[in-house]
């Protein structure tokens, strides 16, 4: 395995950091680390990188203990922190060159293609850039030496949708070349779009690990139907994917997992005053996963 953790724990005095995080990430996979802000994603990453010393447990990357041999690990990885920053007076190209020298040089042609694909202006100084443009420079820095492992903390933060799509393509290309990507995010749809496997973290603890397909039972819609007359409960409660059916007056609330088509077809047979459908927020999704794991 490329990354292995066993009971990894980090506490700040009495405050929670992460608790008993156990993961195994194979070569050539895109692994999503999904959780709301404050869940422990960054603490886990900083502990993996040796920036924080664990309170308990252990972590290994490329077979090396992260606290014993960090130099051997860092030679082979690319890292994008949640807030990428460097010297304000350096241009984008100079920032990339600075890190390239740390790795003994890079393929400048590949580096230039990365800048073009991500829309980086190599001549603008870092202090002149927006958060999204700083993030793009950080992605170039992380990818430019074609590392065996990419550790990316909220990599699409501040990026516009077109650049996000280009980033997803770069991540898939890295995987196709046999490299490994560890990607943290609080966006469920992003992890679903690009990752092979995923771990869900909440309040510093892993609550679920599995394939992206195994997350699909968490994806659901909350549907509200207001009828002009009596509520036809029987027409909806046995439909595929429908659960948590509740009636209040002439309003029907239900949870729908999977396709919405059966509900829409059933509703079309009645006189409706209103039809609302919404996806739950990430915190709500995680709360459901957390309760299911308890």
Automatic annotation (TrEMBL):
Q: Name one GO molecular function term.
A: ATP binding
Q: Where in the cell is it found?
A: Cell membrane
Keyword tags:
Antibiotic resistance, ATP-binding, Nucleotide-binding, Transport
The family database entries (CDD domains) matched by this protein are listed as:
ABC_DR_subfamily_A (cd03230)
The uppermost taxa in this organism's lineage are: Bacteria, Bacillati, Actinomycetota, Actinomycetes, Micromonosporales
Q: Where is the ABC transporter domain?
A: 3-228
Instruction: Tell me the protein's name.
Output: ABC-2 type transport system ATP-binding protein
GO (cellular component) term, any one: plasma membrane
Q: Does the keyword ATP-binding apply?
A: yes
Main localization is membrane
């Amino acid at each position: 395995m490329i990354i292995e953790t066993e009971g990894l724990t980090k506490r700040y005095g009495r405050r929670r950091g992460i608790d008993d995080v156990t993961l195994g990430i194979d070569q050539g996979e895109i692994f999503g680390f999904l959780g709301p802000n404050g869940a422990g994603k960054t603490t886990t990453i900083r502990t993996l990188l040796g920036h924080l010393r664990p309170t308990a447990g252990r972590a290994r990357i490329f077979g090396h203990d992260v606290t014993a041999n960090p130099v051997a690990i860092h030679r082979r990885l690319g890292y994008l922190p949640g807030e990428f920053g460097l010297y304000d007076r350096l241009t984008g190209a100079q920032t990339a060159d600075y890190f390239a020298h740390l790795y003994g040089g890079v393929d400048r042609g590949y580096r230039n293609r990365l800048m073009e694909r991500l829309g980086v202006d190599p001549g603008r100084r870092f202090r002149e850039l927006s958060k999204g443009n700083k993030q793009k420079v950080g992605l170039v820095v992380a990818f430019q030496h074609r590392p065996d492992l990419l550790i990316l903390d909220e990599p699409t933060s501040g990026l516009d949708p077109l650049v996000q799509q280009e980033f997803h393509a770069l991540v898939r290309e890295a995987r196709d070349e046999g490299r490994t990507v560890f990607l943290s995010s609080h966006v469920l749809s992003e992890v679903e779009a690009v990752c092979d496997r995923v771990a869900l973290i909440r309040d510093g603890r892993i609550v679920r690990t599995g394939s992206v397909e195994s997350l699909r039972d968490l994806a659901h819609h909350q549907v509200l139907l207001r009828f002009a007359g009596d509520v036809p409960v029987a027409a909806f409660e046995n439909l595929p994917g429908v659960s948590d059916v509740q009636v209040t007056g002439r309003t029907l609330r239900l949870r729908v997992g999977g396709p919405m088509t059966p509900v829409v077809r059933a509703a079309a047979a009645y006189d409706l005053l209103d039809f609302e459908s919404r996806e739950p927020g990430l915190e709500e999704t995680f709360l459901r996963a957390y309760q299911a794991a308890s």
